[in-house]
Design goal:
Number of strands: 6
Helix content: 55-70%
Strand order of the largest sheet: 3-4-6-5
Radius of gyration: 20 Å
Strand content: 5-15%
Number of helices: 9
Shape: globular
Largest sheet: 4 strands, mixed
Number of domains: 1
Distance between the termini: 55 Å
């Protein structure tokens, strides 16, 4: 059996995949053919166990906006010369009855909006901003990256446990606690915040390509800030602060609009 340190090294060496939005290599141990079928099954199970809203103005709006944002993603990859990038994706956009102010996306393009987020979305441009953000998570493989990071974190924990076997139980407990805090606050949380910021930027580009008003994105987060009741410090959160998101979105709007014009003119 390979030692934990060898496993960690092998994982790190073999786990790079290029993010075609940023051009940077990212941590990814799970390919589409391995991850997507599992995600699709989980999505179907979720829908079967929850109340899916169908045949209403709101549910149809979610479907229509989702289709337009997914089409914008296809236009983006065609523009980049990556015609087959989305071949394994299977888009689905469902509205589920739930008071939570939330929306989420499974790897491979399976998206859920909760009814509780619609008042904050407020209009079709607000929904497009949220939809773009969720689609961006799928396109940038964020789910696979988080699973990969968790796998390596667990391998590191096994390594720490092995290296401290000769220590007393008290010292080993301290070491493991320190490892957990360090890798969560210093690694996993910033990793998640990076994904959220990345999805904000990519989502803004997608809504611009789809023809929606990108100026609504920072307004959406202003409404989200007003509705937020939490006061978790940003460094202990999986998401950037609303203030940071609003500032970034305003800064990224001209770039997103320029990209949309370039793609439109290239057809």
């Amino acid at each position: 059996m390979k030692s934990p340190i060898i496993i960690v090294l092998l994982l790190l060496i073999s786990s790079c995949k290029v993010n075609h939005f940023t051009g940077k290599k990212t941590l990814n141990l799970y390919g589409n053919k391995q991850l997507f079928p599992m995600a699709f099954r989980e999505y179907d199970t979720f829908l079967a166990e929850n109340k899916v809203i169908q045949g209403t103005k709101e549910s149809e709006q979610i479907q229509q906006i989702g289709v337009k944002i997914a089409a914008a993603a296809q236009h983006y990859f065609e523009y980049k010369g990556l015609l087959d990038y989305l071949k394994d994706y299977s888009w689905a956009f469902n509205l589920v009855e739930d008071e939570s102010v939330n929306a989420w996306c499974m790897p491979g393009g399976k998206i859920v909006f909760y009814t509780g987020i619609l008042p904050i979305a407020a209009n079709e441009n607000g929904i497009a901003a949220i939809m773009g953000h969720e689609v961006a998570h799928a396109l940038a493989d964020h789910g696979a990256q988080r699973m990969s990071a968790s796998t390596i974190q667990m391998a590191g924990a096994a390594l720490t446990d092995r290296l401290t076997q000769k220590e007393s139980d008290e010292k080993r407990a301290v070491f493991m606690q320190a490892y957990g805090v360090a890798t969560t606050v210093g690694g996993m949380l910033p990793f998640s915040r990076k994904h959220e910021s990345e999805a904000d930027k990519i989502g803004l580009q997608l809504m611009a390509i789809a023809g929606y008003d990108t100026n609504e994105a920072p307004l959406l987060w202003e409404r989200m800030r007003e509705a937020s009741k939490g006061d978790t410090p940003e460094f202990l959160s999986t998401h950037p602060s609303e203030e940071r998101r609003i500032e970034n979105l305003k800064k990224w709007i001209p770039e997103a609009q320029q990209l949309a014009r370039e793609i439109k003119n290239s057809k």
